[in-house]
């Protein structure tokens, strides 16, 4: 079996448009949530979201290209190009047929779908844009990244709702571990802050109706009432260890475990007994060949919904047993909102950065911990702590659970 390391990071997020700025703002407890500006949201009953700020796609592609991609592809390509640059890789120096892309989106080109359905209704089907289909379909974030990077190995997308980004990282890890690839760009991208995105999740009563951005995303708090929609992308360069060492790459950390399970319980609600997500965590721990007590930090799915936060707390206890009371947990969704299919990708980056800096980002909105949530969630202010192993949890509609376990880089020992 091959060992898999991380050699490049890229991110466009509500709290920063590079991986480094994203991380520094998480450490500071910066809140990326604010009033919705992309459209008039009054009729949805929702007033806040976590939008990107001052994002300029022409830093990464020609303006003409942005007209032929939905925002989710634009975000994903931008993050992937950052990760490629950060890795120091030159495409002419690698075997492109062993360089893959596994990049996901939970929904795909929702903005494009909305715009073109309206156009069809108002002006007829002959007025649908010629690029409607390639702009809308969810696999195109992977396809566009492959095109921009020149990667000709595996190129696929995994759609598991809010677990998509973590599943992408996990499957990339396996592709390298089992010898099918040398390099894989992996992550997720999402752009659903639009009328149908906000309105649809509002109709499901999944979104927070709070008008104060500082009280809207409050994971594990007794007053939580729903999640806050976010947007953006995160991409990681995963690389076979010997390949990375041979070229003198900067190594951020190592991927050592992956779990992927199903609750087989309910369309949108997690299993309250925590068994599905708990088993997923245990699978990642077992693959890493460590004990539950060795997990130093968990970046929780932590959506700020009444059902998730209790069920995830139960799942952590299911997986870690007595060690659950000692592990440090936080939800960075308190700052970024919920990026759906991209959530696990930016949260994977947060785990890697936590390992590198030995620092736990806070759960900033947490004021009054819910009675059923009785673990250490790092409320309000981040914390210095040695982190050797960090776990990223993602739990999606449909009962999808995905977990990645990362380890501090300690050389090739």
Structure in words:
There is one protein chain. With 413 residues, the protein is an alpha/beta fold. It folds into 2 domains: 4-246, Peroxisomal Thiolase, Chain A, domain 1 (3-Layer(aba) Sandwich); 255-408, Peroxisomal Thiolase, Chain A, domain 1, CATH 3.40.47.10. Helices cover 34% and strands 18% of the residues. It contains 14 helices and 14 strands. It has helices spanning 19-28, 63-66, 71-87, 110-123, 132-136, 140-149, 164-177, 195-203, 213-216, 241-246, 275-288, 306-320, 333-336, 343-357; strands at residues 4-12, 34-35, 48-49, 99-104, 155-156, 183-190, 232-240, 253-262, 297-299, 328-330, 359-360, 383-384, 389-396, 400-408. The strands form 3 sheets. Strands 5-4-6-7-1-8-14-13-9-10 form a 10-stranded mixed sheet, sandwiched between helices. It is globular, with a radius of gyration of 20 Å. The protein starts with a strand and ends in a 5-residue tail after the last strand. The mean pLDDT is 97.
Strand order of the largest sheet: 5-4-6-7-1-8-14-13-9-10
Sheet-strand content, in percent, reads 15-25%
CATH topology of the largest domain: Peroxisomal Thiolase, Chain A, domain 1
Shape: globular
Q: So how many helices?
A: 14
What CATH first level of the largest domain would be assigned?
A: Alpha Beta
Q: What does the main sheet amount to?
A: 10 strands, mixed
- CA radius of gyration is 20 Å
Low-confidence region ranges: none
DSSP strand tally: 14
Our count of domains comes out at 2
What's the quaternary structure here?
single chain
Family: Belongs to the thiolase-like superfamily. Beta-ketoacyl-ACP synthases family.
Protein name: 3-oxoacyl-[acyl-carrier-protein] synthase 2
Active site: 162
GO cellular component, one term: cytosol
């Amino acid at each position: 079996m091959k060992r898999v390391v991380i050699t490049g990071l890229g991110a466009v997020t509500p709290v920063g448009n590079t991986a480094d700025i994203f991380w520094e703002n998480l450490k500071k407890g910066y809140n990326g949530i604010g009033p919705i500006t992309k459209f008039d949201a009054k009729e949805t009953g929702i007033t806040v979201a976590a939008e990107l700020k001052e994002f300029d796609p022409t830093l990464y592609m020609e303006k003409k290209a942005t007209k032929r991609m939905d925002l989710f592809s634009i975000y994903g390509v931008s993050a992937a190009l950052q990760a490629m640059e950060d890795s120091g890789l030159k495409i002419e120096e690698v075997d492109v047929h062993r360089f893959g892309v596994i990049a996901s989106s939970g929904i795909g080109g929702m903005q494009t779908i909305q715009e073109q359905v309206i156009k069809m209704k108002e002006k007829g089907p002959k007025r649908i844009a010629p690029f409607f289909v390639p702009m809308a379909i969810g696999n195109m974030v992977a396809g566009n990244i492959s095109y921009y990077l020149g990667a000709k190995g595996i190129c696929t997308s995994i759609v598991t709702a809010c677990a998509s980004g973590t599943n992408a990282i996990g499957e990339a890890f396996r592709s390298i571990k089992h010898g099918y690839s040398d390099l894989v760009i992996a992550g997720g991208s999402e752009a659903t802050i639009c009328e149908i995105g906000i309105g649809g999740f509002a109709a499901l009563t999944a979104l927070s109706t709070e008008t104060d951005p500082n009280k809207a995303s409050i994971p594990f708090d007794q007053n939580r009432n729903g999640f806050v929609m976010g947007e953006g992308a995160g991409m990681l360069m995963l690389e076979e260890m010997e390949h990375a060492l041979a070229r003198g790459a900067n190594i951020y950390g190592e991927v050592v475990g992956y779990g992927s399970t199903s609750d087989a319980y309910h369309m949108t609600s997690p299993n309250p007994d925590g068994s599905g997500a708990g088993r997923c965590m245990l699978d990642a721990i077992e693959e890493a060949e460590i004990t539950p007590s060795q997990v130093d930090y968990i970046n929780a799915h932590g959506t700020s919904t009444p059902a998730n936060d209790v069920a995830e707390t139960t799942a952590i206890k299911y997986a870690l047993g007595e060690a659950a009371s000692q592990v440090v947990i936080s939800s960075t969704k308190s700052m970024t909102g919920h990026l759906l299919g991209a959530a696990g990708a930016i949260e994977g980056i947060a785990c890697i950065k936590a390992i590198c800096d030995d620092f736990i980002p806070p759960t900033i909105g947490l004021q009054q911990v819910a009675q059923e949530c009785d673990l250490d969630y790092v409320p309000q202010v981040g914390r210095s702590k040695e982190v050797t192993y960090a776990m990223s949890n993602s739990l999606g509609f449909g009962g999808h659970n995905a977990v990645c376990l990362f380890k501090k880089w300690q050389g090739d020992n």
